[in-house]
Structure formats: structure tokens, C-alpha cells
Amino acid sequence: MSEVIPTEGPDTRLATHLDATLDLLALPVEPELRERVLMHFTIAAQMGDLVMSFPMSDEAEPAPVYVP
Amino acid sequence: MSADTTKTDAVSLDANDLAAGPALTIAAAVRGGEVSARAIVEATLERIAQADPLLTAFTHVASERARTRADALDAARAKGEALGPLAGVPFAVKNLFDLAGVVTVAGSKINRDHAPASRDAALVERLEAAGAICVGALNMGEYAYDFTGENAHDGDSRNPHDLAHMSGGSSGGSGAAVGGKLVPLALGSDTNGSIRVPSSFSGIFGLKPTYGRLSRARTFPFVASFDHLGPFARNVADLASAYDAMLGHDRDDEAMPDIPASPTLPELPRGADGLRVAVLGGWFAKAGMPQAFAAVARAAKVLGAVDTVELPEVERARASAFIISMAEGSSLHIDRLRERGPDFDPAVRERLLAGAALPGHWIVKAQKFRRWFHARALELFAQYDVLIAPATPVPAPLSGQKTFVLDGKEMLVRPNIGIYTQPISFIGLPVAAVPIPSGDPLPIAVQLIAAPWREDIALRAAAALEAAGIAYAPEPVL
């Protein structure tokens, strides 16, 4: 995979999630920047789908393990 | 550029000839009294004054600091004191390294409001303890979230082989300064490729050590999970010497395990003797331009690499690194995003804002995948000592170029420059980035990847390519 420049309209659920989260976190976005933020979020969602679709066991440990 | 540089007429011809390096030649000459450290510093400052307006490599020239340090070295030598292995060698650092008395801007406008640093970064202290002389701070992509070397506030670092092209980033000033022969050594950081990309585009040697190998103390972070620091140089011995001088545990970097390390310079004459070398296929053999694969083929031939092997699931590794970087970067900057949004470079801000919306379970899964991928890499290193891959899919694009075509698809330049570097730093493997010039004006590099904590092996393979005459830093155009 290498993300291509999205040529189709964004998934409206991604836009809804993005807008709600930025609002929740009180992160201001100018309208002219919002479309580019959505483009990056859409790319990241493609990456996230790829990561989430990999089967792993319940016992899998994350890479950083806290050492007290 | 802030500069307290003043010109001097007291620069000897020898110093002008010597100042661009090799670093070890400078050090030998200073130790032997053939040239003063002060003369080397003056020649370096003169070279910076002449060439930096074209390269935009420096954001701060530490003239008086360097002169003071040089005079102290010369006085120590006059008293018969032994000087260090890097005596009198000028170096400069990406401007996310603390320099006492200087504001650590990390490529940003926002951090210019910070107080000046009270103490040098750990690696600056170590290089200077070896006799090197810091001459300034270098341009970089804002907050290191960059592969281009472009900077909205300080101007774009330029490629020393064609000023119309990118230096590579985010350690763009480091690439331009060493590639342009302003300094023989520089330091940079590499989270997803920011040492290896400018090494490739600017035609120099870079070392991204194992994650946790070199202290990150007193540097401005980006992605704690992947942040590495390392050196740039114009030859392998200089690169190894700088790395050796910075080794050693540091309690001030909490990600740093106390793992013994031996100097690598004495190992270089062994070259690739006995090393088992393979070429990485699959992901690393797709999507690049012919120059990238030609460089790999030439390196493979010299190193006797016959086998082509694959790391599994590289696409997921890259995706995992991508979203972890977005999320950790966004978390680091969340208050600045809220309060100082318009002061960011928009190209950085828009990605950090997107990162703020990533669901947490994606990131946890990506960190679990990171452990899985690391285990697969270790299986390969049971069979091979060095894996060869391209450093970048293309030579340097034009400055400001937004898209390029790879594998017949139009892609965004910024994220896709790092397609070959990002999966490797994801699991913290040591990599020597080695330029393999082809005669084209714009150089390109390969990655020589070794098992964790085996920087010595990556550097030995680099030395073998250098000895064979295919790896070298080409002369800049200025």
C-alpha cells in the first residue's frame, strides 16, 4: 500500500467523527484547512483499517512495556 | 539566520583546505599542531557566510561560542594537554538539540517564545568532550514532521547538488550543511526516516542507530516511540568516529537501556568479511524509480548478496508507524494546536489535527503489531547480518513539489518519500544510509540494515562499499 490521493468523496462517517472529535477537544480548524485535515484523516483511516484487520491473540503485548 | 559572525583575514590556506574535512584529518592536524583549531573555525565560519545564503542550512551560527571553544583547545595543546579524537572538528546540530543560551526552536515559530536552553544536549556535550566544536544550529522541517527539508518560517533547505531541489528532511539543514561541505559533521534526528532521507537526497552518509542507543536528553521530541538521534558525515570513518564519541548510557534519557557498546572505528577495516548479506524484496522492491533499485543492485554486488528475502507485512508495519506517529505527535502538540493553530506550518498542523481524532484502539493495536513485526525481523537476522534496501524511492524532488508518480499512481510527495525508511525505524533497527552516486546530478542512497545493537556491522558494510569506490559523498555544486 501507499496511499494514493483520494479521488472519491470522503466517507461521511469519517467526516462526522473528525468534526465531532475536534469539537470535543476544542481544536479550532478554519474551513479552508478542514478539507485537508479530512484528507489526512481519511488516509489514516485506511492505515487504521489495515492495522485492525491483522489477527492477533488476546495475549499479544504492545511493544513498549513499562519497566518499574 | 541569527549570526554573530564577523569576518577575519587570519585564515590560513591550509585551514581553508582542511575545514570541509575529512573530520579525522582535521583532528590529526589540530592534534599535531599543523593547524590551529581557531583557524579551522574561522575557515568554517567564512564558508558558512558564503554558501549558506544559497543552502539555507543554518538558523543560528554560534560564532563566538565556536571561537571561544577553539581558543581553549589551542591553549590546551600549547600546554601539552592531550586533545580528543575529534579535536577541532566543526559540527552543527539540527535545531531541536539544545544549545546553551540558544532557543531550541525545533523548526517552529511557536517555540521561539521559549526561554533559551540552559545546557547543551547530551550528544553535543559528548562530541565537544571529544574535542569537536559546535558552530551552530541547523534548519529542519517544523517539529520534525517532514521528509522534505522545507520550512515555512526559516525557508527551505536546498539540495547541495541542485539548488532547485529538496535537501530531504526533516534534518534538512544537516543534509545541506554536510552535503554542501559547510561542516564535516552534523547531528540530526530520525523518527520515520529524517536522517536517512536527507542522506539520500543530499548525497552523504548517515547513521540511524538502534532505538535507545544514543541519548536524546535535552532535545525536542516528536514521537517518543520512534525518536532516534544520529550523525551525518562525508565518509564512513568520520561517521563512525562521531558515533563512537557519543556512546554511553545516560540516565537523562529514560528510553535508554544500559547496554554495553564498543567503538566501531577499529572494526571498519574488517569490511564485509564474513558478513551474510541479503537484499530486501517485496515492499522494498516496488514503487521506486529505477535509480533506487540500481543503487541497491550495485551495493548487493559488492557485498556479495545473492539472496533476496522478504519481511512479512511491511505494509502494515508502515501503516502502524504512520498512525502511531500521527497520534503521538498530536498528543505532544495538543495544547499548541488549541492555542496557537495559525502559528503552525499548515502542512504540519493539518496532519497533527487529523492525528487528534485517531481512535485509541488503533494505536494500541499498532503497538502490538510492532512487537510482532520486530520478532519477524529477528528471525531474518538469524540468517543474515545485513539487509539492503533503498533509502528513498526517488532522488530529490523539486523544492515545493507536492505530488509524484510511483507505480503509475499519483502520490503525495511528503508522506511517500519515507515508504522504505518508515517500516525499519518502526522497530528501531540500526541503519547506515550510504550514498551510491550514479553519475546523475542528484544522488541517492541505500539503507544497510543490521540487527539491534549491531551498528558496527552496518558501518562495516558501509566501509566495504566505500572501499570498493561505489559509496562516496559527491562534490556539491557550490
Task: Jot down its keywords.
heterodimer, A: 68 residues, mainly alpha, 2 helices, B: 478 residues, alpha/beta, Amidase signature (AS) enzymes, 12-stranded mixed β-sheet, two-stranded antiparallel ribbon, 15 helices, 37% helix, globular, disordered N terminus
Strand content of chain A: under 5%
Distance between the termini of chain A: 38 Å
CATH topology of chain B: Amidase signature (AS) enzymes
**Number of helical segments of chain B?**
15
Flag low-confidence runs of chain A: none
- Report the sheet with the most strands of chain A, covering strand number, pairing sense and barrel closure: none
Reading the helices and strands of chain A in chain order gives HH
Q: Examine the secondary-structure arrangement and name the CATH architecture of chain B.
A: Alpha-Beta Complex
Number of domains of chain B: 1
Structural summary, described in words:
Chain A has a domain at 12-52. Chain A has two helices and no strands. Chain A has helices at 12-24, 31-52. Chain B is built from 15 helices and 16 strands. Chain B has helices at residues 13-18, 23-31, 37-55, 63-78, 122-129, 172-179, 196-202, 236-246, 290-303, 314-339, 346-355, 360-381, 413-416, 422-425, 455-467, and strands at 2-3, 58-61, 90-94, 133-138, 158-159, 162-166, 185-190, 205-208, 228-233, 277-280, 308-309, 386-390, 403-406, 409-412, 431-435, 445-450. Chain B has a twelve-stranded mixed sheet with strand order 1-2-4-3-7-9-8-15-16-12-10-11, sandwiched between helices. In chain B, helix 3 (37-55) packs antiparallel against helix 4, helix 10 crosses helix 11 (346-355) and helix 10 packs across helix 12 (360-381). Chain B is globular. Chain B starts with a strand and ends in an 11-residue tail after the last helix. Chains A and B meet through helix 1 and helix 2 of A and helix 10, helix 11, helix 12 and strand 14 of B.
Give a quick summary of the entry.
The complex is a heterodimer of chains A (68) and B (478). Chain A is mostly helical.
